[in-house]
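Lab notebook, bench 4. The sequencing result for the construct came back, and we need a structural model before the next group meeting so we can plan mutations. Quick request posted to the team channel:

Model the 3D structure of this chain.
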Amino acid sequence: MTLMELLVLLAVAGVCGAAGQALSGYSRGGCFGAIAVGFVGAVIGMWLARTLGLPALFAVSIGGTAFPMVWSVIGGALFVALLGLVTRRR
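Done. Here's the predicted structure in token form:
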């Protein structure tokens, strides 16, 4: 994977993470937090899709790595909602 492919993958994960944060209504961590939420959301979303027997929706292939955008947003929203329940507001 080249540096350009990695940067595009990070940008896609950031957009998916930001969308997941917007859906759940709980936002922390800025740009790097959104990227982390995008990657964690992809893991959670694909696990959920495999468990329920659902297909990968709108998977973007970047450098031979498939990144499931829809499941990343759904998994990110679930992850951030769980974080919002666990952590208390200041």
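The CA atoms of residues 1 and 65 lie 9 Å apart.
Will bring this to the meeting.
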